[in-house]
Specification:
387 residues; alpha/beta; Beta-Lactamase; Rossmann fold; 2 domains; seven-stranded mixed beta sheet; five-stranded antiparallel beta sheet; 13 helices; 16 strands; binds zinc ion
Length: 387
């Protein structure tokens, strides 16, 4: 196994050191990047696509949280050469990370048109359907078998090893569930939807206990609604995933700090939303007051009456099922009264359901839906900025 290059990223994911092999490695990987152009820039600047960025957030966060060396196998093939690589992430005391890449094995292959630069592929003017390709392991999703297949095998089977003028499908980059699981010896995963260039609004959504699996990730309410309905306000969603039953508030705050420091989100435009234990974490985050939150929304959360003053600092909408057997309805009701007594703008929405009433909360067709409240909040914030 041959060491390819070493670089280091700061606790806020800024590249602060690269070794002399970096330029060579970057050009092998198809990027024309010089070391001087890299130092001082956020690592995510060099990652294309929100899925891959999310993946690296997850891996880095996990290395820092778990404080152990993490090894991730990946592929770095070019049209005529296959390369098995290994990424080794070493967390350090100060939360910076040393990242080493190794070349494990390389071998030459017949010319694989799937791996040509996108411009060459565009010229082929393919009318075929697009293919899902994992950016980490370079496996292609085989829709017939619902499984992932090595890109070289796939090319051989479907005759993409060849000559001029081969019609090539469009490749849609993603991260497969196997790589995602490998990268997540981890507690946190961020699913960052692409925001609109004009939007500085960040919605941080924390799910409830047991909703942290890969499959659930696609069913978490804001994700679904955000992706499929254009009527909703423009915002970027950060939806970390926890496989545990609790949220680590320091980690959530460091995620938010990274979005503000490195990705241009305004610290004044952050809204927190959460379900059950995620809702409880939201209340705790608001009470810690690390950011001037624009507002917050919780469903089925456990309130702490002693936090009422801190919780009255920004507008909120608090949902609770009247038949909730997990968290006392009465307790939440008195919490909302306490917030109002402190002068807080808090809306209380009792629902005729139990603890899992969040389906109703995120159902946009409901009059008291979270989305109605969120849209109003964003519009008011925009109006007050303009006046
Ligand atoms: Zn993969």
């Amino acid at each position: 196994m041959k060491l390819s290059c070493i670089y280091r990223i700061s606790p806020t994911n800024i590249i602060d050191h690269v070794d002399s092999n970096f330029a060579e490695f970057a050009s092998e990987a198809g990027a024309s990047t010089l070391a001087e152009g890299v130092i001082g820039k956020p690592f995510t600047t060099f990652i294309a696509g929100s899925e891959l960025r999310s993946y690296f957030y997850q891996v880095f966060m996990s290395a820092r949280c778990n404080r152990k060396v993490q090894q991730i196998p990946f592929r770095c093939d070019s049209p005529d050469m296959a390369r098995e690589m290994l990424l080794e992430i070493v967390p350090r005391e100060d939360r910076s990370l040393q990242i080493k890449t190794y070349l494990v094995k390389e071998w030459s292959t017949p010319h694989n048109v799937l791996l040509e630069a996108p411009s060459a592929r565009t010229r082929a003017r393919s009318k075929q359907e697009s293919l899902l390709l994992c950016s980490i392991c370079l496996r292609v999703f085989n829709a017939n078998f619902h499984s992932w297949e090595d890109i070289q095998q796939f090319a051989a089977r479907c005759q993409f090893f060849s000559k001029e003028g081969t019609q090539v499908p469009r490749l849609q980059r993603t991260v497969c569930e196997i790589c995602e699981a490998l990268g997540s010896g981890c507690q946190y995963l961020i699913t960052e939807s692409d925001g609109y260039p004009s939007s500085k609004d960040l919605l941080v959504f924390l799910h409830g206990a047991g909703q942290g699996t890969w499959l659930m990730r696609m069913q978490v309410p804001p994700r679904v609604i955000y992706d499929f309905d254009a009527r909703f306000p423009r915002f970027t969603l950060v939806s970390p995933i926890s496989t545990g039953r609790q949220w680590n508030l320091d980690d959530i705050e460091s995620i938010i700090k990274d979005m503000v420091d490195n990705h241009g989100y305004s610290p004044n435009r952050i809204v927190l939303a959460g379900i059950s234990v995620g809702g409880t974490a939201v209340l705790e985050l608001v009470a810690r007051n690390a950011f001037p939150y624009l507002g917050y929304s919780v469903v089925g959360a456990v309130p702490k009456i002693s936090d009422a003053k801190a919780l009255s600092n920004c507008p909120s909408i608090i949902y609770h099922g009247k038949d909730d057997q997990v968290v006392s309805y009465k307790l939440v009701e008195s919490m909302v009264s306490a917030i109002k007594l402190q002068g807080g703008l808090s809306e209380f929405v009792p629902l005729s359901w139990g603890h899992d009433c969040w389906h109703q909360v995120y159902d946009a067709s409901q009059k008291t839906s979270f989305w109605t409240w969120y849209r109003k909040l964003l519009e008011e914030a925009r109006d007050s900025n303009q006046s």
